[in-house]
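How a chain folds remains the central question behind the approach discussed here. For one protein, we set the task of working out the structure tokens from the amino acid sequence alone. The sequence in question and its structure tokens are set out directly beneath this paragraph.

_____
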Amino acid sequence: MNGGALAGIRVVDLSRVLAGPYCAQLLGDHGAQVTKLEPVTGDLTRSWGPSRGDGVSAYYAGLNRNKEHLTADLASPEGRDLALRLLRDADVLVENFKPGTMERWGLGTEELLERFPRLVYCRISAFDGAGPMAGLPGYDAVIQAYTGIMDLNGEPDGPPLRVPMPVADLTTGLLAFAGVLLALHERARSGRGQCVDLSLEDGAMSLLHPAAANYFMTGEPPRRLGSAHPNIAPCDTFHSPAGELYVAAGSDRQFAVLVGFLGAPELARDPRFGTNADRLAHRHELNAALARLVAGLDPGVDLARALVTEGVPATLIRPLADVLDAPDAAERGMVTGLDGLRLLGVPIRLSRTPGSVRTPPRPLGADQAAVGAAST
């Protein structure tokens, strides 16, 4: 089996919880040798939610495969020495400590880049260093609230809601992964490493499309729309005899096909609904008409397949268990198993050097003896 696109790249993962470990896991999925150096008390996520009993919780398992697992107290001389020994041969460092912490330990960006000039130093913080919250800690839910994501999420007459997935952390982890690859690519030309600096705040703000674009153009603050779309109609959920149906007819042609399928082709000729702008202006009347038509559909019809076959983006809303247990999820490699754990797979598919899930998330310090001895 090939070693992956990043075979030969060595990563020291000092990060905890989510964005940093996710970035390091993505590097490991594609062949990098990742050594995770945890506090002696363990990554906080080892205690989050269901656990299999050896310190590997479900939350930890989803972010820490394809890594070697060591512990160190970086505030101690011994822990600092271990980190420096690992960094001697490392290409990438990932850390997400509170700003100033690494400097206090003598492991700050300037010190390490001077000592290891080829190192790509990936630094992730909660808030951007130039903002009023600079240097303060923050979790994903706090970032969602602070950056307006929660304000946009929810029903029009309901309160703001957190997006249930940690989108700020995951997005920042993906951006960190991309930033590390950019820095490694540039290093191949210059021979020099650099700092890759990210914050959850900026990562979350990068998700504010099209709300930000709409606000910049109109000056009108966005409103919560539930499952509807601010720029497209119809784009919403409708109750059908077979379940909740989500329809996103983004073009005039798709709308004409949709209402033809529903047995009401005259709606495409209705001046209230002739263009997307018309449909947005009369969104409530349109949704009421579509709701009546969808509610009367034959419950035996595979609505999602029938509509998509006709060119209308639509699907029944699937429960998560159905998504994860579907045979095609395993066939595509998006659900996989290792060491008795079910894990999500590798979404980036390379034809010659595909990523892979090779080693499971392990108990705290499981590789201490082997890796610690090798680094001396």
Notes: The radius of gyration is 25 Å. The chain has 17 helices and eleven strands. The domain at 10-207+328-374 is CATH 3.40.50.10540 (Rossmann fold). The chain has two domains: 10-207+328-374, 235-319.
